[in-house]
Amino acid sequence: MDKFDELKNKFPEIKVNVSLKNYCNYKIGGVAKGVYEANSAEDLVEIVRFSKREGISFYLIGKGTNVLFLDEGFDGLIIVNKTNEIVIMEKGDKNSIIRVDSGVTIAGLISFGLKNNIGGMASFYCLPGTIGGAVYGNAGSFGMEIKDVLFKVEFYDLDLDIIVEKDRDELYFGYRDSIFKKKNNWIILKAYLKCENLDSNLEEYQKNLKEIAVKRTGKQPFGASCGSFFKNVYLEDGTVLYAGKMIEECGLKGEKIGGAQISPQHGNFILNKDNASSEDVLKLASLAKEKVRERFSVELQEEVRVGGGITDY
Ligand SMILES: Cc1cc2nc3c(=O)[nH]c(=O)nc-3n(C[C@H](O)[C@H](O)[C@H](O)COP(=O)(O)OP(=O)(O)OC[C@H]3O[C@@H](n4cnc5c(N)ncnc54)[C@H](O)[C@@H]3O)c2cc1C
Questions:
Q1: Ligand 1, atom 14: closest residue by C-alpha
Q2: What string of DSSP letters covers 109-146?
Q3: CATH match for 3-81 among 3.30.499.10, 3.30.450.20, 1.10.287.130, 3.30.43.10
Q4: Over the stretch 118-165, which tens digit does the pLDDT of each residue have?
Q5: 86-219 — its CATH code?
Q6: Residues 179-213: pLDDT tens digits?
Q7: CATH of domain 233-307
Q8: Where are the domains of the chain?
Q9: Is there a catalytic annotation at residue 303?
Q10: Measured from the CB, is residue 109 less than 6 Å from ligand 1?
């Protein structure tokens, strides 16, 4: 019996030979040897620990809204984070402290807040993905980043085999960045958020949510994508060069390779228009990088995590 069969014996819910297209917003990717859905933080720690011990490559995802899987698939285990507990730890006069499993979606979190009179997250309305993914990349939207409501993270350190808590200030958050991007062996389990209570502001909050939804629909192209493909470029003097604008100024809006297209609406969205392969998307991304380098002398960096043919762990 090989290592993977042993894993399958211990976790019989593992599905084998599964198309990665079903696990990412891009709807791109080959076949994964196995897919396992972890339903609790304990379950997540157990599968990760066992995979590491058995030397099986794995790749953890939330909703797969910021990953591009490769056409060659993944010769290992994709772990889908379905952990879903939210606990109100403290309800103060003005703020509440909530502990959120990393697999909870932003949509689920906002809706939990509405039911429990907790707000402060309107800017994140309609942001796809999980809390784990948002903490990993310090997701941001309409002037707020996830770090602005976060004060502590609980994670599993795979190398040391311990669960650790760290305060926000120890997690090196930056623009679409956190320590978790460097420490690939740290699995985010829970986030502690401090959010304002709604009380008399409920109506105004609901109005904000609607406004954000309208802004998002107006701003973002419809279709299969990973959101912004590249990060904006921050120069040392504080100037921001917007990736989408630079790509647009290179005349690349609407450019197609195979089934992939740079959105005619937004230069930083590479869409899967017509059964695109990861190769199509990556070729378009290379073209955009090359043209931007030539014209603006800056190097675009991917915001999307290109994975599936590699293991991050
Ligand atoms: C239409 C669209 C619009 C978007 N708009 C925005 C936007 O406005 N702002 C923005 O910031 N992003 C945006 N995104 C990108 C994406 O929504 C965010 O990056 C989101 O936070 C990713 O969450 P996820 O659960 O889908 O992560 P995934 O895509 O599943 O994973 C992303 C990375 O995080 C790692 N990861 C996930 N969970 C964990 C965990 N528990 N522990 C350790 N590592 C983990 C994965 O290994 C992977 O490397 C958009 C995407 C789409 C498709």
A1: 227
A2: HHHHHHHTTB-S-GGGTT--SBHHHHHHTT-EETTEEG
A3: 3.30.43.10
A4: 999 999 999 999 999 999 999 999 999 999 999 999 999 999 999 999
A5: 3.30.465.10
A6: 999 998 999 999 999 999 998 889 999 999 999 99
A7: 3.90.78.10
A8: 3-81, 86-219, 233-307
A9: yes
A10: no
CA of 205 to the centre of ligand 1 (A): 24
State ipTM: 0.99
Say yes or no: CB of residue 139 within 6 Å of ligand 1: yes
Q: Whose CA is nearest to atom 39 of ligand 1?
A: 132
Q: Check 51, 228, 277, 278 and give the catalytic one.
A: 228
180 CA to middle of ligand 1, Å?
13
93 Cα to the center of ligand 1, angstroms: 32
The phi and psi torsions of 124 (rounded to 5 degrees) equal -90, 0
| pLDDT above 60 (res 313) | no
Residue with the two structure tokens 């004060």? 151
For residues 173 and 150, what is the distance between their CA atoms, to the nearest angstrom? 11
Residue 206, beta-bridge partner list? none
Q: Kindly report the average pLDDT of the chain as a whole number.
A: 95
CA angle 131, 137, 141 (to 5 degrees): 75
Task: Say what the pLDDT of residue 2 is.
Answer: 86
pLDDT in tens, 224-273: 999 999 999 999 998 999 999 999 999 999 999 999 999 999 999 999 99
Catalytic pick among 141, 176, 225, 277: 176
**Ligand 1 atom 49, closest CA:** 305
